[in-house]
Write the structure tokens for this entry.
Amino acid sequence: MNGIYYYLIAFFIIWILALTLKSKLTNHGFEINFPIIMWKTDKLRGIISKISNFSPTFWKWYMNVGIVVCYIGMVAMAWILFSSLQTVFDTPSVSIVLPGVEIPGSPIYVPFLSGFIALATVLIVHEFSHGIQAVGEKIPIKSVGLLLVAILPGAFVEPDEDELKKSSRISRLRVYGAGTMANITLALIALLIVSGISYEIPALFDEDGIEISRIVGDSPSEGILKQGMIIESIDGNKINNSQNYIDIVSSFSPGDNVTVQTDQGNYNVVLGKNPNNESVGFFGIQASKHFELKDNSMGDLPWALFTLAEIFQWIFTLNLGIGLFNILPIKPLDGGYMLEILLSYKLSENQYKPIVNSLSAVFAIVIVFSIVAGFI
């Protein structure tokens, strides 16, 4: 079943329950106003305060570095976004992230379980970091909570807006930049963990061919090849390893009728046009290395390394991608507010607000255009 149907089923179940039990839920901190459900609590404020007070000096200097990182990221993301317009119909640089759902035109497919775990780390780390830094800057937190926008999950930390506006520019910069800096930090930690797991895998496993990990919807291979098949050869070319597989696959052209030999039989696939390069044949499969355990006496435990590697790979990808996206100079993203504060050092409010509002509109148009171009 297409992942989007799970979201639709969950949407109806959640909203039927929410509207039916609205009077009871509101007594437990819920605010239900379609299409948003919010749950607010002040119980987590104590945890945030303890973390912030553990080492105030560390958090202060950590975010001093974070401000620089965020502005560098802002410039880099702006350049990437605009430069991607040249190839927007081939390889869109902006995509909606829905774990388990294949987004038309997007080169990225986020698995359901590992994607949701990774997305949860993005939201929790980002929002908690805003709160930790706010406490460190003596800005009270009014509430902490979770939310659903239709069916999409989110989290929030609600600082006292009046106190935030009264605080110094550098304090506000630290608060606004804390979320992205935390996402980037977690991404780097996840990358180190993935690297460590990748280092251990060759010691425990032997590479043994290529396994189909996913069939792209509406692709030439759909209904012919299946997830889990081991590819042994393609048109008589034996598959020995991942590099060998890439070289062989890239040698075919659109329209070629190719024989794929697998551990479950031989299948013919008529190749389509590759979305990223129309001169190259397109199978419509995502493949990964297939491994065999060197020592079977260890049982199934070593296989958990692949699950952990996938989870941390997506923690890295989503924290880096969403964290940097959040620093784009667009209001109401954190990057928009940080740009306003930067411009306020030299310009009056009447001067910098129109600049930021105009930039926000331009970037928003580019983002929407990139997403729509992917569907086209």
